[in-house]
Amino acid sequence: MISKKWEILHKDPKDIKTIKDITNILLKNRGIKTEKQKMEFFEPIDPMKISLKSLGISESEVKKAIGRIKKAKKNDEHVIVYGDYDADGITGTATMWETLHALGIFVLPHIPERFSEGYGLNLESVARLKKEDPKLKLIITVDHGITAGKKVDEVGKMGIDMIISDHHQQGKEKTKPLALIYTTQIGGSALAWFFAREVLKKVGPFAEGSDLIKEKLQLAAIGTVADQLPLVGPNRSIVKYGLEELKNTKRPGLLALFDEAGLTGSDPVKRVGTYEVGFMIAPRINSMGRLKHGLESLRLLCTKDKFKAMEIAGNIGRTNFDRQKMVDQIMATTLSEMKIESKGFTNEIIIIAGESYHEGVIGLAAAKLVEEFYRPAIVLSIKEGVAKASARSISGFNIIEAIRKFEDLYIEGGGHPMAAGFSIKTENIPEFSRRLNKLAKGTLTEELLQRRLKIDLELDFEKINPELVEWVKKFEPSGLGNPSPVFVSKDVEIISVKAVGRDAKHLKLKLRQNEHIFDSIFFGGGEMYSKLSTKAKLDVVYRLEENVWNGLVSLQLQIRDIKVDLH
Fold first, then answer.
1. Do 543 and 557 contact (CB within 8 A), yes or no?
2. Number of CB atoms found within 10 A of residue 372's CB
């Protein structure tokens, strides 16, 4: 376990006298200061009431798009919803396809196959779709298309109009479809939801508050969490209201997926939150696009057949297990092959390559290496003399900027400061690795390589009570941009400690500060067991949570980190 540098955001514990003080500090730490911001944070706007203008979506472009959809319906033209193969694209495609289908339009979904079609608009695929269906006159993209550029013109030459809905950064070359539904404020699935909301208002016999579109908020919530978007503003609204729909879902596919993921039981899906979506549901949806075909995940979301749903969910579960095994294999190879000196790593950046590495999981493997060792990592999948690479970084080291300094060595690539992808001739990998690590040597300081744990404030056990927990719960849904509140308590005694779970990986502790006692759980803390005894005093970092066991609810500390004082 790599040690973490604790960073307490609010320094003075004397400021903390009441629950209101605690709440205001938590809000301030998240950049929420004005009364209006506080009100919108605790009472997010219903997405049904969020205007297109406030999202930066062009109303005139939406009007053009709706006019074209009306024309398709009137003339019995065929439509393709062309989505992306990740969870954000698949959930958005489900929303758009179901909406148009409900309006009586002849519409089919298309999810590209990662390895043969690649990301985004594939002209060969469009030509094939047109050949198979001469009545195809309109393509609507979901979660891609903003960088399609001249491909849009080529599609037009085939007699097909395009409506692009996307949220990614625009490139230098402007894309000019028939209509552009665009904003960077929300994700692809959320954008599809708002577009579908407007379509239902103008086309067909649906009321503005129709349950048909409200129910689809659950899909937008899954996509938003999966795409790791900041859960503030409209994203917070989408996820908060979408999770409520998700907890009451009637979709056979999602219910089957919950069951396969072990989220059902005596209280089915009631506790599904951002963690369950981000770490259990979205990875399963993503796994098909990574290893097989994302269309299978779309079928799961849209099926109305309970038995078909169970069959697909089982297939997705097995594929997700294969994905995990592939990532674990790369991790095991790394651990066995990585040369580690007594003082640390031989290289600043972890760079590993293998012919057995599946290109669908190299990004996940790179992310896991960063999580494990807290330093930038690049994983390359070698195939026939060319390798595809996926890179992940840490805060303070711009990985794409570093990679671009060696354009003479790689074929093509792109990305952003924290993640990038590129392709490179296998013969160039050693030189690329040498030069990149030489560059990183002067940039990756010990300070940058120190993992940080941000803590909201110091809290005494006497201030922890059910009322505080209720206020902390109001900060949900939490995620990027709005982390779960984290506290630290000092000079805490251990009453009891025991290792639990498979291979004793976790710890259960009973902790006391003065006369106040709390149960706690430390996931992944098993390796600290030998350092802990009832004689030790601790500084402990934790989240507050409710633990439900046999129908009884108790207050529990979920430990994030511990510092031990044996003196």
1. yes
2. 15
Q: Whole domain around residue 400: which residue ranges? A: 349-443
Domain boundary among 165, 181, 207: 207
Task: State mean pLDDT over 431-460.
Answer: 91
Identity of residue 172: K
- What would the DSSP string read from start to end of 167-198? -SPP-SSPP--SEEEE-SSS-HHHHHHHHHHH
What Å distances lie between residue 295 and 195, 291, 316, 345, 363, CA to CA? 22, 12, 11, 42, 21
From the number of C-beta atoms within 10 Å of its C-beta (0-12, 13-18, 19+), residue 502 rates as exposed
Domain end call among 177, 207, 237: 207
Whether residue 469 sits in one domain with residue 398: no
* Whether residues 32 and 106 fall in one domain: no
The string of DSSP letters for 378-405 reads: EEEEEETTEEEEEEE--TT--HHHHHGG
Q: For position 196, which CATH number holds?
A: 3.90.1640.30
Can you give the pLDDT at residue 343? 42
Residue 70 has pLDDT above 90, yes or no: yes
Residues β-bridged to residue 114: none
As beta bridge partners, residue 108 has 80
274: Cβ contacts below 8 Å, ≥ 6 apart: 225, 231, 239, 243, 476, 477, 478, 479
Q: What's the CATH code of the domain at 427?
A: 3.10.310.30
Compute the half-sphere exposure of residue 315: CA atoms within 13 Å on the CB side of its CA. 18
Amino acid at 478: S
State residue 339's pLDDT score: 52
Instruction: Kindly state whether residue 275 falls inside one of the protein's structural domains.
Output: no
342-392: pLDDT as tens digits: 345 567 899 999 998 998 899 999 999 998 889 999 999 998 899 999 999
% pLDDT > 70, the chain: 95
Number of domains, the chain: 3
Q: Please, which pLDDT band fits residue 295 given cuts at 50, 70 and 90?
A: very high
DSSP 113-170: -HHHH-SS--HHHHHHHHHH-TTEEEEEEES--TT-TTHHHHHHHTT-EEEEEE-SPP
What six digits make up the tokens of 100?
Answer: 């148009």
Q: What is the pLDDT of residue 508?
A: 93
Token code pair at residue 285: 């949806």
